[in-house]
Structure formats: C-alpha cells, structure tokens
C-alpha cells in the first residue's frame, strides 16, 4: 500500500514475537546541511485568540511557545519584536502572574520558544512542560548552533514560594539532537548555553555541539533525565531523527522560578556546518 505523506501517518509494525508497535511516519525534505524552517524567525501568524506565534501558520509551523497556556491569565511572555528593516525576532520576558496565581504556586511565567507543539489538551497549571511535545524532524550533523541574542536578568531571582535565591536569574539557550526509533529515545548531540551575564546589544553566539555521551565537565542539567546517549561508536556517523531547540528567559521557569523582568531576545537560529 502507498502512504500519503502530505500529512503524518501511523502504521502498525508486528515483530516476530507477535508484539505490536505503532510508528508515526513524517515526511520532510532531505538536505545535506539542513536549517530549521523559519530559522530567521521573521514569520509570525495571528492565532484565533489574537496573539502571535512564530511560523507561517498553525498547521505548518515547527515552533511553539508557552503562550497557549498563559494567555488564559492575559499573559503573553513570548512576543515578536521588530528589529527594523522587516527583521523580526522573538522577545521572551519573565512576567508576574499576579497574587492569585502566586497562592497556587504559579507566580511567574517565563518566556520561551521551542521546536515542537503545545498541546492544549494536556495543560497542567502546575507543570508547564506537560503540554509541550518537544522536537521536530531533522537529519543533519551540524558542528555548532549559532544564534543572535541579548539578555538582561531581572532584579530578584525567586523560587515558586517567593523566596529570594542566592544566585541571579539566567537565560537558557540549547539544542538537542536525538534519535527516536521504536519508542526509544537516545541523545546524539548537545549544544547548551546558560548565562546570567547582561548582554545589552544583539550579539552572535556560537555554541558547539558535543556528539555522544557527555563527560563530568558538563553540568548536570545538560544530561538527559529520562533516557540515555547513543554509543560512542555510532555518535561518529549516525544521523539524528529529531532536533529540539529551546530558548527561555528564566532557566528555572518550568518550576516557576525566575526573576520578574528577565528579558531574552533571540534571532536567527542557525545550524553551522563545516
């Protein structure tokens, strides 16, 4: 039978032992040195509830934000910003959700942008990432992740209970290359940047990808929490199936920790090849 891959299709595979697996098949254009669709972040569409999201339209975009979860509070932590000459970028700001939200342990909204889908059916006010399905199809082996960014942390970094933390807020910018096959996920490569330093002017930042398992010189937060790495041998040649890119104005935003007023601007999310 022929599969119409204009839209993702689900097929059932039956192993020799009779066990059955459902695979979702997605088609994408092959390229030796692929870039993310709308990597310049110049395309933004207006949603049915009158806020803007990155991409040409809801059905084709590979990008998502947390706005779908926060707009019910009349909060939009990620918005397009015009840099001039028809150049748009993503502005992420950590916002105060108000006193009532604070009582329920959700005092702030961290601005974020990511490759993936925000599934409103899975919204959990206590767990912002529960509704996010991270990643988009990708089959390149970039040497580095390059972005333009500016950052200013807010004055007081606090945890979800309102306690002032001993360290400043920081932005997160990272990309993960993964192999997802047969229900198994393995990390192929990691590019990660976390910083509390003020960067007033939009500046180019190049973050190298590290292929294969990370050693102890990398901070704990860069390691996968619920799966492993590809083997060291295969890390030298295999292609990923997915890429997850994330930018956030507060690194602890998923746990409702951050400094109100932290602002991260990201433009031109580019893959660098040799």
Provide a brief overview of the structure.
With 274 residues, the chain is mainly β. 3% of the residues lie in helices and 42% in strands.
Q: What does this protein look like?
A:
- It is a single chain.
- The chain has 274 residues and is mainly β.
- It has a single domain, classed as Sandwich (Jelly Rolls).
- It is 3% helix and 42% strand.
- It has 2 helices and 22 strands.
- It has helices at 67-70, 99-103, and strands at 9-14, 20-25, 44-46, 52-54, 63-65, 78-82, 88-93, 95-96, 108-109, 112-118, 132-134, 136-137, 144-152, 157-158, 171-181, 184-195, 199-208, 210-211, 228-229, 242-248, 258-259, 263-272.
- The strands form 6 sheets. Strands 5, 10, 11, 12, 15, 16, 18, 19 and 20 form a 9-stranded mixed beta sheet that branches. A 5-stranded antiparallel beta sheet has the order 6-7-22-13-17, with no helix packed on it. The chain has a two-stranded antiparallel ribbon with strand order 1-2.
- Strand 6 (78-82) and strand 7 (88-93) form a beta hairpin.
- It starts with 8 loop residues before the first strand and ends with a strand.
- 32% of the residues are buried.
- The mean pLDDT is 90.
Shape: globular
Do you know the CATH topology?
Jelly Rolls
Strand segment tally:
22
Between the first and last Cα atoms, what is the distance in angstroms?
40 Å
Percentage of β-strand residues: 35-45%
CATH architecture: Sandwich
Full CATH superfamily name: BT2081, beta-jelly-roll domain
| Multimer state | single chain
């Amino acid at each position: 039978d022929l599969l119409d891959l204009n839209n993702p299709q689900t097929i059932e595979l039956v192993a020799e032992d009779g066990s059955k697996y459902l695979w979702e098949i997605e088609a994408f254009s092959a390229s030796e040195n692929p870039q993310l669709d709308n990597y310049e972040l110049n395309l933004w569409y207006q949603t049915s509830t009158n806020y803007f999201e990155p991409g040409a339209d809801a059905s084709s975009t590979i990008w998502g934000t947390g706005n779908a979860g926060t707009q019910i509070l009349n909060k939009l932590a990620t918005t397009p910003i015009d840099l001039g000459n028809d150049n748009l970028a993503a502005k992420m700001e950590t916002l105060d959700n108000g006193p009532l939200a604070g009582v329920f342990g959700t005092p702030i909204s961290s601005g974020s942008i990511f490759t993936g889908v925000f599934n409103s059916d899975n919204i959990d006010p206590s767990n912002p990432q529960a509704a996010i399905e991270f990643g988009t199809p990708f089959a390149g082996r970039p040497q580095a992740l390059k972005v333009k960014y500016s950052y200013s942390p807010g004055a007081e970094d606090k945890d979800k209970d309102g306690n002032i933390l001993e360290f400043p807020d920081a932005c997160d910018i990272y990309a993960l290359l993964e192999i997802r096959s047969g229900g198994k996920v393995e990390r192929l490569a990691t590019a990660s940047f976390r910083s509390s330093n003020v960067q007033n002017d939009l500046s180019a930042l190049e973050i190298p990808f590290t292929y294969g398992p990370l050693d102890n010189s990398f901070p704990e937060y860069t390691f996968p929490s619920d799966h492993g790495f590809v083997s060291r041998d295969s890390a030298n040649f295999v292609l990923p199936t997915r890429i997850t890119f994330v930018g956030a104005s507060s690194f602890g935003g998923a746990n409702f920790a951050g400094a109100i007023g932290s602002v991260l601007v990201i433009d031109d999310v580019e893959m660098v090849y040799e």
